Amino acid sequence: MATHAAMPGRRGGRAHARPRRRTALAWALPLVLGVVYGFYAAFIRRDGGPSTGGQVLLGLVSGAALAVLCFALGRIQHALPRELRAAAYGALTACAIGFLVSLTDTSVLRSTALGLAVGVGVLCVSYYALYARES
Which carries the bigger pLDDT value, residue 27 or residue 7? Predict the structure, then answer.
């Protein structure tokens, strides 16, 4: 008869949850993505010629923007439902890829189409991954 007293009870939600600690990955991953993205944007804009201050500034600004957006998405992603989280990942990726393609001096339609195609792919893959993990 004393078995029920030894069994751990279920707590609804996170009743006594400790606040989440931010790991080094929470800021290191957006920082690395921003640095790589900025270098690649400056490399695309260089187009084989000498490096200029404008290209370096473009790389710094675009890398910093992507790093801030990735960090912000990482901070709020747990508050979003999986559909909206997958859409946020897809939208961020679509904008980032579309901007990189636009730096190659191609048409606006090509950069939009490539950005949308990659964004939809990321949306589908991230939704599947989130659905499989949470189910």
Answer: 27
